[in-house]
Amino acid sequence: MNIQKKRFSRTLGKVLRIAVILGVTYVLLSVIWAFPFANILFKPPEVPGGLPSLTMNGAEKIPAVWTAQDGVQVYILSVLSTAGPKPINLSAWWVFRDSSRSKPTVVFMAGNGGLNPFSYEDEISLLTGLGYNCLLLDQRGYGASKGELLTYGWYERGDFDAIVDTLVNRYGIDRNRLGLWGYSMGASNAVAIAAAHPEIKAVLLFAPWSAPIPMAVHYVWRSFSVPKFLLYLPVQAAIWYGCWRAGSEVLDPAEEAKKVRCPALVVHGDIDDIVPPKLTDKLYQSLAGPKELVLIPGAQHNDLFEVMGQERYLELMKIFFTTHLAN
């Protein structure tokens, strides 16, 4: 009996030592992997030829084309934002027909893949044709907009303040007739902005995300063949490190949505491979004001507009902003 007890004690001791070694190894690896993971999560992705933006190759010709085709005016803006640890300049295009004074204004913010102005001619033509002003914004870290790190709404709220103040002072827009239109990261940032600005009248959100840690784990998991449960600690460490570098905190768009009382329309695909539909639904359920959800069967993240079809997409945009922003 004593021999069996000794054997059991030795076996248990070995198991505990192995468990401690594995635990310490996991913690150390989590700390090590936090640095590259933070770059994945807090920096715009690096792609060959650079990310699409308002300053991408050939984009400088678009304003003249839009003016010739649609009779709109396009001003290229550089706006100083004092949000964040140091002032930065933001790049934007201000688009309007005839006069911008006292008209409704729609601000567009793109996703993590950047803003390709070649892709938005039809949307701009629709909105300016309805009598709205439009602003296309390269968010911090994209194109000519400065700022090294993404902050997912934390400093972007202050950037929006700088943009609106500039538009009011230069072009006489009505700050009480503002609508937001965002895609993916831009949609989630739009929620944080709307939460801080109760005067915003409508938000149109395509494939927004919520729940920062599960979202970040899923995003990192897509690049690594590692079970998701092993990613939670290194991703959490990466978020802590990224926030420390940026001097910011991470907002949960679902929590911010509880403060958004203006009408909201949320559109996403039911097989989204980048933003899990349950995270979009969590944000939708949290919205405090009038809301509508449009689920697109068979649509993933990057083919959402194609699966919807351009005609349906534009009609949806027209009805939403005409209903909630025109008057």
Properties at a glance:
11 helices, 8 strands, 2 domains, 8-stranded mixed sheet, Rossmann fold, 327 residues
What's the topology here?
Elements: H1 2-42, H2 62-70, E1 73-81, E2 88-96, E3 105-109, H3 121-129, E4 133-138, H4 156-171, E5 178-183, H5 185-196, E6 202-206, H6 212-221, H7 232-246, H8 253-257, E7 264-269, H9 277-286, E8 291-296, H10 304-308, H11 310-324
Question: If you had to describe this structure to a student in words, what would you say it looks like?
Answer:
The protein has 327 residues and is an alpha/beta fold. The chain has two domains: 1-42 and 213-251, no CATH class; 47-211 and 253-324, 3-Layer(aba) Sandwich (Rossmann fold), CATH 3.40.50. It has eleven helices and eight strands. It has helices at residues 2-42, 62-70, 121-129, 156-171, 185-196, 212-221, 232-246, 253-257, 277-286, 304-308, 310-324; strands at residues 73-81, 88-96, 105-109, 133-138, 178-183, 202-206, 264-269, 291-296. An eight-stranded mixed sheet has the order 1-2-4-3-5-6-7-8, with helices on both faces. β7, α9 (277-286) and β8 form a beta-alpha-beta unit. α1 crosses α7 (232-246) and α6 (212-221) crosses α7 (232-246). The mean pLDDT is 92.
